[in-house]
Design a protein that fits this description.
alpha+beta, 1 helix, two-stranded antiparallel ribbon, three-stranded antiparallel beta sheet
Length: about 100
C-alpha cells in the first residue's frame, strides 16, 4: 500500500509543473474599465459674437423698363454682431438670437 501511495504522490507532483506551464500561456486579463462620467458641458447661457467678410462682384444690371444700364462692379466689406441666450433642457437646446 505504501508503494501505491508513493507512486500516486509522485505522479500527482509530476503534473503540477505541467499545469503551471499551460497557465503561463494564457492571456492577461484586460484592465478594469472605469465607469465614464457623464459629460458636464451645458449650452445654457448668454453669448456674443461677430463676423466679417469681403465680397467682389463684376457685371452690370440692365433695366428693361427704364432702358438703362447700371454698373455693378467693385469690392466691399461686410460684417455684423450677434448675441443671444440659450437654455438646455436635457438633450434639447432652445434659444433666442439677434443680429
Amino acid at each position: 500500500m505504501k508503494k501505491f501511495l508513493l507512486r500516486l504522490a509522485l505522479a500527482s507532483v509530476a503534473f503540477v509543473p505541467a499545469a503551471t506551464a499551460i497557465a503561463a500561456d494564457l492571456d492577461m486579463p484586460p484592465p478594469p474599465v472605469e465607469d465614464l462620467r457623464p459629460a458636464n458641458f451645458d449650452w445654457t447661457g448668454f453669448y456674443v459674437g461677430g463676423w466679417a467678410g469681403a465680397t467682389c462682384i463684376e457685371g452690370e444690371l440692365i433695366d428693361n423698363t427704364a432702358v438703362a444700364e447700371f454698373e455693378m462692379s467693385g469690392c466691399g466689406w461686410k460684417g455684423g454682431v450677434m448675441g443671444g441666450y440659450n437654455h438646455q433642457f436635457e438633450q434639447w437646446v432652445l434659444g433666442l438670437e439677434a443680429d
